[in-house]
Write a structure and sequence with these properties.
Layout lengths: L17 H18 L18 E2 L7 E3 L9 H9 L1 E2 L3 E2 L8 E2 L5 E5 L4 E5 L5 E5 L7 E6 L6 E6 L3 E6 L4 E7 L3 E11 L5 E13 L5 E8 L7 E9 L5 E5 L4 E6 L2 E9 L11 E8 L4 E8 L4 E3 L2 E3 L2 E7 L3 E5 L2 H8 L11 E5 L5 E6 L5 E6 L4 E5 L5 E4 L6 E6 L5 E6 L3 E6 L5 E6 L35 E2 L6 E6 L12 E6 L4 E7 L21 E7 L5 E9 L21 E11 L4 E9 L12 E6 L6 E5 L3 E16 L5 E14 L9 E5 L6 E7 L3 E7 L6 E6 L8 E5 L2 E5 L3 E5 L4 E7 L8 E7 L4 E13 L6 E13 L2 E10 L3 E7 L4 E6 L3 E6 L22 H5 L15 H10 L3 H5 L10 H14 L1
Antiparallel strand pairs: 1-2, 2-54, 3-61, 4-61, 5-6, 6-7, 7-8, 9-10, 10-11, 11-12, 13-14, 14-15, 15-16, 17-18, 18-19, 19-20, 21-24, 22-23, 24-25, 25-26, 27-28, 28-29, 29-30, 31-32, 32-33, 33-34, 35-36, 36-37, 37-38, 39-40, 40-41, 41-42, 43-44, 44-45, 45-46, 47-48, 48-49, 49-50, 51-52, 52-53, ...
């Protein structure tokens, strides 16, 4: 008769009995102690003696406290560690480079920091990515003038790549000495003046190690593709900010600070070599303004000047004061000024002024009759040059960085400062395509709104991320990422007032909605010239069924406006007055947006009645309940009021009955510390609420509270050190992240592990994510690594960023990787068991293992679905991306189709609204089209 052993309740959560697990653990510790002297050393250098209180690893790896010994991983643990990997990054931040249209205007090419993506105009989705191997920072992207399927991409390390963007094939690479800042292209010409149709002439602006800026002509060598031929046409010590090409590269116009430099080709190439014998004559002129952007236009026909026919070039220059200066026929004017018989005293110009701030971009229209400009006012301005009339497109979502006119002149590509690009029609200014990325701010740089298209990239010191980014994954649509975003990515004005929903699979924005009052208007400056700010969203949380969203926004009053209320008190001696709102939003299926149901003003207040900041917000994992903790020392639980409900009139025209929200329990905590910090977390079943609280008297505390009754069942001290930065439950274990990573067994009331991330003595900033699917937890921690300079001996601080995955039942490290950018958010994917990392470069990375069954779909799948916007798309049109999709029709067939199959687009899409013909002419053209059909 065999005896059956009954498992105790506390042992039911583990695979083996507690005593068996302790026995195996002690055996592993003994084996590790015996084998540790025989372990091979990683470095031949002798390591110094380490502190007995901590076992630290080099280069910022994890340091384990002396209570936890390092256990040698078993074969099973090695396989688990090898199974985890960090996937390639998706998304990214759009650079302030001009978008590139394809010749047929069916595709648009946008530049990211490390890749160039091709987007379809019909679907607004990325269909192909051109990613150079190795480290790179893209600085230029231009289309070939001799082959419409070729695009040239330059990077900061002196490389120019030739890509076939229709097939994704990288053909050849050119290396240019120095740091390439921008490029331009023109057809290579022979001695007889005929264009060479098989290659292009590449103009490159590069900065040399000596500090000089050079503009050179480059062409790929036909005999040896690995080499290129190069000729320097301009070398100057003045930093060149931007340059433009005209007349197929015969004229080069550059701006160097407040100096205008114009080069005119006086000698063409000789023989078969496109680089031999090319000469340029350069002229410089002092500009009366400080330029911020400029654009040139070549007239369609040559104008007769003295001595023959010359090239007519008009120039529009935007300056820092908000005006636009227009110079007509600038090249011939400068040539005439050199003649002493010329009566012209200087450059003739006229000025246009509407912008209050610096003009960020200005462009000529295709016909040269009007200008398009944009700046910080979020307004697109169209200037009619003949009549002086202005047309506005106000209330864009963000300041304008770049504007590009399509090759046919039928649309504009507008690059905005919120990491988005939109394409507008020239006739109606109607958006036909929109490409949006993650609209988060990069805390490490402060040049987001600057037009750095062709300027040298300044090295900025990387900084540790300031606080946590409130991000969450939709509980029903696990591919949707919800996060507060700003209208501008500038460091001084980055206040998150909008909620962006981003699809991580397609790398596209699903929708965006304002959760607080906004100032997307031209009137966003006060009477005294101060920038009007908006409330900043601090926290967002969602119920488990995705029906309710809770948000906390905070707004601080302007100190100058309330000085009269505090006479005799200095500005720095008084507490800033806040406005804090706790809002509850209900999802409307009909209108597909969040509708505000309840707003609670000042949910936490001080003894004087002033609102105090909320330290953390958490949602119940199964029911309708939210918990907040404030710096007033109170924990409040918010539930729907079943007794009171009201009908919400939605935009769909229906009255939806919804419930109001109220505070069910207000639980007092200890007196907060001087700098209060707290963290909240529900258990997996929602039966327990944990509060990590820093009190002034008892130090660091952990309270376990029953959310139904509000009673504190257990209070525990000395579980962690420093300020709590995150906590969470994983079965019976509670993980607390502060200066250390602590794992507390809540059933046996003992600390299983206490790990010190980073270097000894550093105070890292950590993020925590817990994944119940694979029973692991992960952290992203940022810390400053201090190293001494060998020459000077002075300490030098360098930020480091690490990602690590742990098993709560053992202190062994499952996976660890170094991150290049500061992590802003770390989230668990409960459907796949993966971890999602969002960094400061607006990129999304996934930490996945071989167990994960669901992977990201290919973002760059070919998509030829037409956009149903006109008769041409209904009856069919020709769209080409790859040579494999079908044979290309001949030019005669295309010309015949263009003349026979006219559509309403050909009638109305001819320019801006003020350039349209009369009503009688439009009506006649429309009748002719329908008569032929």
């Amino acid at each position: 008769m065999t005896e059956k052993r009954v498992r105790r309740p506390e042992e039911a959560h583990s695979e083996k009995p507690n005593r068996e697990r302790q026995r195996i653990k002690r055996r592993r510790l003994d084996e590790a102690a015996k084998e540790s002297p025989k372990a091979p050393k990683k470095s031949p250098k002798k390591s110094p003696k380490k502190d007995a209180g901590a076992i630290a690893k080099a280069d910022g790896e994890l340091a384990v406290s002396k209570e936890i010994s390092v256990v040698k991983p078993t074969n099973e643990e090695k396989r688990t560690a090898d199974g985890w990997r960090l996937s390639s990054q998706a998304g990214g931040r759009l650079l302030n480079l001009d978008p590139v249209f394809s010749t047929d205007e069916n595709y648009i090419i946008l530049s990211l920091e490390s890749a160039v993506q091709v987007y379809s105009m019909a679907t607004s989705r990325a269909v192909r990515a051109l990613t150079p191997h190795g480290r790179t920072r893209i600085t230029g992207c231009v289309l070939s003038p001799v082959d419409e399927e070729i695009v040239y991409v330059s990077n900061l390390y002196g490389e120019v790549f030739e890509w076939n963007w229709t097939t994704g094939e990288k053909r050849q690479t050119m290396r240019i000495p120095g740091c390439v800042l921008s490029i331009g292209t023109g057809p290579a010409q022979m001695e007889n003046g005929e264009d060479a149709t098989d290659q292009a002439l590449i103009f490159a602006l590069a900065k040399q190690s000596s500090g000089k800026h050079e503009i050179s002509l480059n062409v790929f060598d036909k005999s040896n593709k690995a080499q290129s031929r190069r000729a320097v046409i301009l070398s100057t010590a003045t930093p060149i900010q931007d340059f433009r090409l005209a007349a197929d590269g015969s004229v080069v116009v550059a701006v160097a600070d407040d100096i205008l430099v114009i080069g005119h080709r006086t000698r063409d190439a000789e023989g078969d070599d496109a680089m031999q014998g090319v000469e340029y004559t350069w002229r410089e002129v002092q500009l009366p303004v400080k330029p911020t952007c400029f654009d040139i236009r070549e007239a369609a026909e040559a104008t007769a000047v003295k001595g023959g026919k010359g090239i007519v070039i008009d120039m529009a220059l935007g300056e820092d004061g908000g005006s636009i200066v227009v110079y007509n026929d600038i090249l011939n004017t400068l040539q005439g000024l050199e003649n002493p018989r010329t009566a012209e005293p200087g450059l003739s110009s006229h000025k246009l002024h509407w912008h209050r701030g610096p003009v960020k971009t200005v462009r000529w229209s295709k016909d040269g009759n009007y200008l398009i400009s944009g700046g910080l006012e979020t307004v697109l301005v169209l200037w009619q040059l003949d009549t002086g009339r202005k047309q506005f497109l106000p209330h864009l979502s963000s300041p304008i960085c770049n504007i590009v006119v399509s090759p046919k002149g039928s649309s504009y590509a507008v690059k905005l400062d919120d990491n988005s690009t939109m394409v507008l029609t020239t006739s109606e200014l109607k958006p036909i395509a929109s490409m949006n990325g993650l609209q988060i701010r990069d805390d490490a740089s402060n040049n987001s709104t600057q037009n750095v298209q062709h300027r040298p990239v300044k090295k900025t010191k990387a900084k540790l991320p300031a606080g946590r980014l409130p991000v969450l994954i939709h509980p029903l649509y696990t591919d949707h990422l919800l996060l507060p975003v700003s209208t501008s990515l500038a460091h001084e004005t980055s206040i998150s007032s909008y909620l962006q929903t981003f699809d991580m699979r397609s790398s596209q924005q699903v929708y965006r909605q304002a959760l607080a009052r906004t100032n997307v208007s031209v009137l966003n400056v006060g009477p005294q010239g101060t920038q009007l700010t908006t409330p900043d969203i601090k926290f967002i949380q969602m119920s488990s069924d995705g029906a309710w969203l809770a948000s906390v926004d905070e707004w601080r009053q302007y100190q100058d406006d309330v000085n009269v209320l505090y006479p005799g008190i200095e500005h720095g001696d008084r507490e800033p007055t806040r406005e804090i709102h706790f809002k509850f939003w209900h999802w409307n299926e009909h209108s597909a947006e969040w509708e505000l149901v309840s707003r609670i003003n000042s949910p936490h207040t001080s003894t004087s009645g002033e609102p105090v900041s909320i330290l953390d917000l958490v949602a119940h994992p199964q029911g309708y309940m939210f918990a907040t903790v404030g710096s007033d020392g109170f924990l409040r639980l918010w539930v729907p009021d079943n007794r009171r409900s009201r009908k919400l009139k939605s935009r769909g025209g229906n009255n939806i009955p919804v419930k109001s929200w109220q505070c069910s329990h207000a639980i007092p905590l200890e007196t907060p510390a001087a700098q209060p910090a707290a963290s909240l977390s529900f258990s997996e079943d929602g039966s327990t609420l944990a509060v990590c609280w820093s009190s002034a008297s008892r130090g660091q505390l952990v309270h376990l509270i029953d959310p139904e009754t509000g009673h504190v069942h257990l209070s525990r001290e000395s579980l962690y050190t420093g300020s709590p930065q995150g906590c969470g439950f994983l079965d019976r274990h509670m993980v607390i992240v502060s200066d250390t990573i602590s794992v507390w067994d809540t059933v046996s009331d003992r600390i299983l592990s206490c790990i010190s991330p980073g270097e000894p003595g550093s105070k890292p900033q950590s993020l925590l994510a817990i994944n119940p699917r694979n029973r692991t937890f992960a952290t992203c921690f940022s810390y400053a690594s201090v190293k001494h300079n060998e020459k000077t001996g002075k300490p030098k601080s360098k930020p480091r960023f690490q990602f690590a995955i742990f098993n709560p039942e053992s202190p062994s490290l499952v996976f660890q990787s170094t991150l290049e950018r500061p992590p802003l958010a770390l989230l668990p994917d409960l459907r796949t068991g993966e971890y999602i990392i969002v960094d400061s470069s607006a990129c999304i990375s996934r930490a996945t293992s071989g167990v994960a069954s669901v992977h990201l779909d290919s973002t760059f799948a070919d998509s030829n679905v037409p956009l149903k916007s006109g008769l041409e798309d209904i009856f069919g049109s020709y769209r080409l991306l790859s040579n494999e999709t079908g044979s290309r029709p001949s030019e005669d067939q295309l010309l015949a189709g263009a003349t026979e199959k006219k559509s309403l687009t050909d009638v109305f899409d001819v320019g801006p609204s003020f350039a349209l013909p009369s009503v009688d002419t439009l009506f006649k053209n429309v009748v002719d089209i329908f008569a032929k059909t």
